[in-house]
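U., I forgot to send this yesterday:
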Amino acid sequence: MNRVVMNMDARGCWTIYSDEPIEFFCVNDHCPDDRVYQMDVEVGVEKVRDQLGNDPVGHKNDTNVFGNGYGPRKPPSKRKLKVVK
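Result:
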């Protein structure tokens, strides 16, 4: 099975994991002259399995209190900063 996992860490950095060797590219249209990046990929069935763990897997068409398409998410957090006038 070909599975790809994108994991964002606490600092907002992405790590890509795959069952099998793949080429993974990130396209950033905000930088038109430097928009395509080839990403490193951690390869291994065990690495993918470790990332997924025993957590439930949401799907794009799941329903919850936010309506269709949001998956099993927590309610949005409250703002901690206030706008200064």
